[in-house]
Design a protein that fits this description.
By secondary structure, this protein is an alpha/beta fold. It has a single domain, classed as DHBP synthase (Alpha-Beta Complex), CATH 3.90.870.10. Helix content is 26%, strand content 23%. It contains six helices and nine strands. A hairpin with a 4-residue loop joins strand 1 and strand 2. The longest helix has 11 residues.
Length: 190
């Protein structure tokens, strides 16, 4: 658990509306408090991303997820519990989330993270964290910390030191599933 020493600094930065650069179970990401409009705006500016593009949020468990989703279908709960790969679910009944994070149809993409570092970060914050690839919008996503553009590294407030030396040649994006009509699930990306 060599990452725990930096968690307080990362949390403090997020709580103040700052941006962090951190490793996730898929790729390096830029994160911020998903309930802070100013932080989201700052993130859009750094990524040079239009405000109508969607982000994925990270939560650490079903209990936190239920604070931001009105209804979690049983099929979605089962997938979260038993799916072995990173899984992002697009929910159609969000609540307590800024409109700027919602898709045009009012949905939101959330992943219950299984990564110990991300779980600890979200758990200590007790709120969802925005998780977006550490790149300028439209550029290739980085496969390692060294691949992250200097503009991104300079544009965040704090960089996690954990896993900076790892090179993940086998990057697999999360599986994406969408809740349809409040009950059914369709796979968007396997």
């Amino acid at each position: 658990m060599d990452y725990l020493y930096q968690i307080p600094e990362l949390i403090s930065t997020i709580e103040k509306g700052g941006l962090i650069l951190y490793p996730t179970e898929t790729i390096w990401g830029i994160g911020c408090d998903a309930t802070n409009e100013k932080a989201i705006s700052k993130l859009n500016k750094l990524k040079k991303r239009s405000a109508d593009k969607n982000y994925i949020l990270l939560v650490d468990n079903i209990d936190l997820l239920s604070q931001y989703i009105s209804y979690i279908p049983p099929k979605a709960r089962n997938l979260i519990e038993y799916f072995s790969k990173p899984l992002t679910i697009v929910y159609d009944q969000p609540k307590n989330i800024p409109d700027s994070l919602l898709a045009d149809d009012g949905s939101i993409a959330i992943r219950v993270t299984s990564d110990p570092f991300c779980k600890t970060l979200v758990n200590r914050l007790a709120k969802p964290i925005v998780s977006t690839s550490a790149n300028i919008s439209g550029s290739p996503f980085p496969t390692s910390f060294d691949d992250i553009e200097p503009l991104i590294k300079e544009g965040v407030d704090v960089i996690a030191e954990y896993r900076q030396n790892e090179i993940n040649k086998d990057i697999t994006p999360s599986t994406i599933v969408k809740v349809v009509d409040g009950m059914d699930l369709i796979f968007i990306r396997k």
